[in-house]
Amino acid sequence: YPTVCAIHEGRFCMGASSDYPRDIDMTRSGGFSPTSVSFHPTTVKDEVEDDLGISVTIGGGDGSPIQWIDTVRNGLAVGTTSREGIISSSTEGQAITPENASYKLHSTVGSASIQPVAVNNALLHVQRVRRRLYAFGYSLDSDGYTSIDMTELSEHLTRSGIIDVAYQQEPINTLWCVLTNGTLLGFTYDRNADVLGWHHHTLGGSDVEVEGVS
Questions:
Q1: Radius of gyration (Cα) for the chain, nearest Å?
Q2: φ, ψ for residue 82 (rounded to 5)?
Q3: Per-residue model confidence as pLDDT tens digits over 163-196
Q4: Could you give the count of Cα atoms lying within 13 Å of 67 in the half-sphere of its Cβ?
Q5: Is the previous residue joined to 116 through a cis bond, with omega within 30 degrees of 0?
Q6: Euclidean distance between CA atoms 183 and 162, whole angstroms
Q7: Strands 174-179, 101-107: pairing kind
């Protein structure tokens, strides 16, 4: 069974099954509903058309399995245990088709099996060993996507490891993080205003531990 899924450019995308941990399959354009999906790669005449199903194998040579996928403005972002990249059209400005779909590597941080959160044109994703939080987003300086460490000055707070995250937009942009030791942390993040800060939250009662957040 697939372990990751997303919707991108009118296609339902899923993949990272136990047998094919580095494959992503996309339905034909608009080819999904609450009761069915269509992955047909060719027409009845064995022809390949732009709106048909797409299958992509993530390259890289290290064999790292896919941990998450999510849509971004330039394509379908893919995080593996050792890399982050984007599946997009090989021709800039065009939609993904069976003929032009390609994968490009953008960073080598490595990701945990925790779905990232989209905040201010960036994906906040947890590092493979769960001790750091990174913002995967477009950078004008490098003219590409990069992963920036959001815990560089506060790495002592997340040292025990992040196991769950949830985003709260109002009244203040805050990413809530649950740690393996039951601690609850908040991360205020506003990329446009260049504001970021971590804060620890102690809950009342005795022997209280946080197990999840939503």
A1: 19
A2: -135, -10
A3: 999 999 988 889 999 999 999 999 998 877 788 8
A4: 22
A5: no
A6: 9
A7: unpaired
From start to end of 90-194, where are the E strands?
A: 101-107, 117-119, 122-126, 133-139, 144-149, 162-168, 174-179, 184-190
- Is 111 in a helix, a strand, or coil? strand
Q: Which residues lie below 8 Å from residue 145, measured CB to CB, with a gap of 6+?
A: 72, 74, 77, 84, 86, 106, 107, 136, 137, 138, 139
Q: Which residues contact 208 (CB under 8 A, 6 or more apart)?
A: 182
Q: Are 4 and 14 in contact (CB under 8 A)?
A: yes
Separation of alpha carbons 25 and 5, rounded Å: 9
SS3 188: strand
Residue type at position 157:
L
Matching residue, tokens 């995250």? 165
- The CA-atom distances, in angstroms, between 140 and each of 61, 134, 143, 144 are 28, 17, 5, 7
Tokens 């490098």 belong to which residue?
142
| pTM reported for the whole predicted model | 0.88
DSSP per-residue codes, 85-102 = EEEEESSTTS---TTTEE
Residue 130 pLDDT greater than 80, yes or no: yes
Tokens of 79: 């995080």
End-to-end CA separation in angstroms for the chain: 25
Q: What does the DSSP 8-state code read for residue 32?
A: B
Closest CA to 61 of 79, 83, 33: 83
